[in-house]
Amino acid sequence: MKKFLLVTFLFGMAVVALSATVFGSPYATDLISYSSTLTGSSLYNDPNAVIGAPATDFKNTWGSAATAHVKLVEPAYNVGLDGSKLITTLNNGQYIVAGFDHQVMNDPNNPFGLDFLVFGNAFYTGSGSVSDASNMSTYMLSGGSSFNGAGFFENVVVSVSQGPAYEGQDQSQWTWYAYSNGPYGDNAYPTHAYEWDQAQYDATGNGWTTNLMDFTKPVDPDVFGALLGQTGVSAADAIEAYQGSGGGTGFDLDDLYLLYGVELDWIQYIKVEGISGYSGGEIDAFSDVAPVPIPGAIWLLGTGVMCLIGIRRRNNL
Ligand SMILES: [Ca+2]
Ligand SMILES: [Ca+2]
Ligand SMILES: [Ca+2]
């Protein structure tokens, strides 16, 4: 019996190890294609800036501080602490195609049904100072009845694809599905990189912890949307409403059924395109949403234990 349990346990551990190797990165890893002319300014015209994790810190050369955290009231701009480019501008008709190193699943265990996130440099406006030295509980958001009235948002059209039908097929020939009517990239919800600790601010004058928010967890659309419509909401309140999420615009593959009658179990590539009517939107990164943990290994272990109980019961008869 002990041997049976051990085997079940080892099998469970193997599943955990396998999962870890299959999913190399939760962020886009491959730059597939991009417009021959990206006309953003020199700081924002490198398509490689959309690969990898969202920006967490930047050199704030135009502000009062030398560096700044990315926060929902102060978005990424300029360059990273190491001088790297952080975001890419997509003006009308310009595009970037990026790929993940694995299939992004339409997983029913993904929070709110949202399967992937697109990060831009949208932010909420308000009154007060956004510098890292400021108290986020005294920075008051402008709020409003709509997201676009509550901050600075732009619209970048997002499309998805499973990739080439045969090896070497150009991305322009792939089957793409566009979220033509939104949601859009560089829109709600603004990226927020670090956890804020009000008690730490009250005691020391610096509320920023070194704990990163979760860039694979979507913001709860209902909770946060309701909060924004109220008055007297501070940046600290908004951070709390993110409930550990690092923000980003959430996309549900199920929405494609309503638009195109197609049921996609997974995608692997994302295209972002600038559209007319906006002075260009910015894209920072893409992430695969992590399902709410109902770990397969624990389920298997549980099944193994139930089998064991069953065997014991039969033996006891
Ligand atoms: Ca989904
Ligand atoms: Ca923008
Ligand atoms: Ca970036």
The portion of residues assigned to helices is: 10-25%
Distance between the termini: 17 Å
Q: What small molecules does the structure contain?
A: calcium ion
- State the shape: globular
Structural class: alpha+beta
Order of helices and strands: HEEEEEEEEEEEEEHEHHEHEEEH
Low-confidence stretches: 12-21
How large is the share of residues in beta strands?
15-25%
Tally of helical runs = 6
Mean pLDDT: 88
Largest sheet: 5 strands, antiparallel
Order of the strands making up the biggest sheet = 1-5-16-11-12
**How many domains?**
2
Radius of gyration: 22 Å
Tell how many strands the DSSP assignment holds: 18
What is the secondary structure topology, with strand pairs?
Elements: H1 2-22, E1 30-34, E2 57-59, E3 67-69, E4 88-90, E5 95-105, E6 116-119, E7 123-124, E8 126-127, E9 140-141, E10 151-152, E11 156-161, E12 177-178, E13 194-196, H2 198-204, E14 208-212, H3 221-228, H4 235-241, E15 249-251, H5 255-260, E16 266-274, E17 281-283, E18 285-288, H6 296-316
Helix pairs in contact: 1-6
Textual characterization of the structure:
There is one protein chain. The chain has 317 residues and is of the alpha+beta class. The protein folds into two domains: 39 residues, no CATH class; 263 residues, no CATH class. It is 22% helix and 23% strand. It is built from six helices and 18 strands. The strands form seven sheets. It has a five-stranded antiparallel sheet, with no helix packed on it. Strand 2 and strand 3 form a beta hairpin. Helix 1 packs antiparallel against helix 6. It starts with a helix and ends with a helix. About 3% of the residues have low confidence. It binds calcium ion (3 copies). The site of one calcium ion (CA) has 7 residues, from loops. The site of one calcium ion has 7 residues, from strand 17.
